[in-house]
UniProtKB/TrEMBL annotation, chain A:
Subunit and interaction comment: Heterodimer of an alpha and a beta subunit.
Function in brief: The electron transfer flavoprotein serves as a specific electron acceptor for other dehydrogenases. It transfers the electrons to the main respiratory chain via ETF-ubiquinone oxidoreductase (ETF dehydrogenase).
Protein family according to the UniProt entry: Belongs to the ETF alpha-subunit/FixB family.
Taxonomic superkingdom: Bacteria
Positions that bind FAD: 217, 242-243, 256-260, 273-280, 294
Organismal lineage: Bacteria, Bacillati, Actinomycetota, Actinomycetes, Micrococcales
This protein's name: Electron transfer flavoprotein alpha subunit apoprotein
Domain Electron transfer flavoprotein alpha/beta-subunit N-terminal: 10-195
Cofactor(s) the record lists: FAD
UniProt-listed Pfam families: ETF (PF01012), ETF_alpha (PF00766)
UniProt signal peptide: none
Keyword Ribosomal protein: no
PANTHER family (alphabetical): ELECTRON TRANSFER FLAVOPROTEIN ALPHA, ELECTRON TRANSFER FLAVOPROTEIN SUBUNIT ALPHA, MITOCHONDRIAL
Keywords noted in UniProt: FAD, Flavoprotein
UniProtKB/TrEMBL annotation, chain B:
Functional note: The electron transfer flavoprotein serves as a specific electron acceptor for other dehydrogenases. It transfers the electrons to the main respiratory chain via ETF-ubiquinone oxidoreductase (ETF dehydrogenase).
Protein name: Electron transfer flavoprotein subunit beta
Domain Electron transfer flavoprotein alpha/beta-subunit N-terminal, chain residue ranges per copy: 23-213
A Pfam family hit: ETF
Cofactor field: FAD
Cellular component GO terms, alphabetical: cytosol
Organism listed in the record: Arthrobacter subterraneus
SUPFAM superfamilies xref list: Adenine nucleotide alpha hydrolases-like
Keywords noted in UniProt: Electron transport, Transport
Subunit structure: Heterodimer of an alpha and a beta subunit.
GO MF term list: electron transfer activity
InterPro entries on file: ETF_a/b_N, ETF_b, ETF_beta_N, Rossmann-like_a/b/a_fold
Length: 329, 258
């Protein structure tokens, strides 16, 4: 069977979580693709999970779903997915290839772009189409500038920042096809073991969260960092941290917001015991509303806060939690 | 063992960083430039390895403006054995693909067993260079490592991803990238600074590497438009007088944020 793919196809790599569920980035990627063309999803997962993953991609707007089984290769880092992406791009001849700007997504997009010699645009916050093709919008230097990029020719490979695209595609029933992939044999690192982070099912993921509560060195200890989590749960927010809090070992790497961590653009950002160093601000200053609690009236976070409380986190935050909980009850 | 460390000069994040609104390039004159901190950590890792393994040669490879040589020399004072600096006006504004081609060609020319890079640079925020280079060199990559162990011709470590952490291992030659969980670099001491003066510095152009940056047969990413966003202003700031938490709760509720 040979499916004819539409001329305006946008190939979207959907990441699948170890649990078999689609990564949360899928909705935004398919939404972005539907805005500029016809979304064609590529799902690399075990054969037993392919059908349900393809249906799930359809619910998020994939008109077509190509599935590829990495088989015994699944312990090779990135390369099997890059091989599948190459096969899919050859088959679909898309106008653009979209990948999540996650850690895995960047590795895959980087290798794929280098292998196929396609132009690569990373960390896009939006995509558009003009007469010549697909254009990627970027927010750089911590949101101080907006830059538009496009390839000189050929389809671009674009990694899209999770949570940046709000458009959602209409649910549909995808045309599903098993993709045949010839392994490239490219050398890859081996994944020897994987420890999935215990996820609190009720708490949103940091990337793409609508609300974020972040804690810094001001929390003083791992035990006291729990205050950040408590406030996050009352607000239904994700938990983030400054580099100082990550360095102290209170929270994992993946919590780090800023220059060398994650960039967030939530509706609400609450910074607790965070000074607001320029490198931290680079990852959160595009938040719609910024709130800060810090005992130092001169902390730079106050320069960009919509509402700042100069005070001790250990008195202000418990009172805030109590006040919010009382309203909820 | 030949270790390549990929380092670059970047505008200092502590200063105000500016983009030229016409070219979209960093305004080099506007901000102080420094060695990217993550690259310094990568070099620190290499220097620490050299202390444990016999016959390690550390080469720093960097692509950047001619003026960056002065900044890059610091790497020699910190313990690198030699510096390969690709500086070429035709490479100003090079996109990710061209940068990866250039760096790969320079690395191949220098010879390598292990390439150590930062996970993301503070100016590019790409975080794709290590994987691109691995692909072009035909070697494995292990990215975003928070710990590294090199022995028996292999490199292994803990790779932190968005959903958890994994133990990965790769046969050398390989490319790794590290996160800022690695210790900050030592300051160069006087002895290091003196020794650095005698260390070889090689400056290369794209042509030396057999690459034509202006070739039209490979697609490149180009900047179409740049605009500056208005800076954020400060809003209300209150001093807690016993009701700070309640006032903040009110603010959140009024703005439908709670
Ligand atoms: C290249 C580079 C990249 C970097 N990348 C990042 C990054 O991605 N993310 C990041 O966050 N940082 C990054 N940093 C580090 C950054 O410069 C700061 O060191 C870091 O953000 C500081 O974290 P902090 O605000 O928690 O700690 P501090 O700066 O120590 O601030 C702690 C704050 O808590 C307040 N405080 C203390 N006790 C209390 C209390 N009881 N009640 C209320 N307030 C209290 C203090 O007044 C202070 O303002 C980077 C640095 C460099 C050079
Ligand atoms: N121009 C360059 N010269 C040398 N190394 C670079 C250059 N650009 C990127 N790198 C390396 O690749 C890492 C990741 O960079 P990036 O992909 O730009 O975020 C950096 O920490 C460096 O180790």
């Amino acid at each position: 069977m040979m499916t004819a793919f539409p001329a305006d196809a946008i190939l979207v790599l959907i990441e699948v979580m170890p649990s078999g569920a689609l990564a949360r980035s899928a909705a935004g990627l398919l939404g972005a693709a539907s805005d500029v063309g016809t979304p064609v999803a590529l799902i690399v997962t075990g054969a037993d999970r392919a059908a349900s993953a393809a249906q799930a991609a359809g619910e998020l707007g994939a008109a077509f779903a190509l599935t590829a089984d990495p088989g015994t290769d699944s312990s090779s880092l990135a390369v099997p997915t890059v091989d599948a992406l190459s096969a899919a791009a050859d088959l679909v001849r898309p106008d653009a290839i979209l990948v999540s700007n996650s850690i895995d997504g960047r590795d895959i997009a980087g290798r794929f772009a280098a292998r196929s010699r396609l132009a690569l645009a990373v960390d896009a916050v939006g995509i558009a189409r003009d007469e010549e093709g697909i254009v990627a919008h970027h927010s750089v230097y911590g949101g101080a500038y907006t830059v538009d990029c496009a390839p000189t020719f050929g389809p671009p490979v674009v990694t899209v920042r999770e949570g940046a695209v709000e458009v959602r595609a209409e649910a549909t029933t995808p045309q599903v096809e098993l993709l045949s992939v010839t392994p490239s044999g490219a050398a890859a690192a081996t994944i020897e073991s994987f420890e999935e982070r215990a996820v609190t099912s009720s708490r949103p993921e940091l990337r793409g969260a609508a609300r974020v509560v972040a804690g810094g060195r001001g929390l003083a200890s791992q035990e006291q960092f729990a205050l950040v989590e408590e406030l996050a749960d009352v607000l239904g927010a994700a938990v983030g941290a400054s580099r100082a809090a990550v360095d102290a070992g209170w929270v994992p790497n993946s919590y780090q917001i800023g220059q060398t961590g994650i960039s967030v653009s939530p509706q609400l950002y609450v910074g607790i015991g965070i000074s607001g160093a320029i490198q931290h601000r680079a990852g959160m200053q595009t938040a719609k509303t910024i709130v800060a609690i810090n005992k130092d009236p001169d902390a730079p976070i106050f320069d960009i806060a919509d509402f700042g409380v100069v005070g001790d986190v250990f008195t202000v935050v418990p009172q805030l939690i109590a006040a919010l909980s009382a309203r909820k009850a | 063992m030949k270790i390549i460390v990929l380092m670059k000069e970047v505008p200092d994040t502590y200063g105000e960083r500016k983009l030229n609104l016409e070219t979209g390039l960093a305004e080099r004159g506007e901000s102080e430039t420094v060695l990217d901190e993550i690259g310094e950590r990568a070099l620190e890792l290499a220097v620490a390895q050299a202390g444990q393994i016999d016959d390690v040669e550390i080469t720093v490879v960097s692509m950047g403006p001619t003026t960056a040589t002065a900044t890059l020399r610091k790497a020699l004072a910190m313990g690198a054995d030699r510096l390969v600096h690709i500086a070429d006006e035709k490479l100003a504004g090079a996109d990710l693909g061209l940068t990866a081609e250039i760096l790969s060609a320079a690395i191949r020319r220098a010879g390598f067993d292990l390439i150590i890079a930062g996970n993301v640079s503070t100016d590019g925020l790409g975080g794709v260079m290590p994987a691109m280079i691995a692909e072009l060199l035909g070697v494995p990559h292990a990215s975003t490592l928070s710990s590294v162990d090199i022995s028996d011709g292999r490199v292994s470590g803990i790779r932190e991803t968005d959903s958890g952490s994994m133990r990965v291992t790769a046969e050398l030659p390989a490319v790794i990238s590290i996160t800022d969980r690695f210790p900050a670099a030592r300051f160069p001491n006087f002895k290091g600074i003196m020794a650095a003066k005698k260390k070889p510095v090689e400056t290369l152009t794209a042509a030396d590497l057999g690459i034509d940056p202006e070739a039209l047969d490979t697609p490149r990413s180009i900047m179409l438009a740049v605009s500056q966003r208005p800076p954020r202003a400060a809003g209300t700031k209150i001093v807690d007088e016993g009701d700070g938490g309640e006032k903040l709760a009110e603010f959140l509720v009024q703005n439908r944020l709670a």
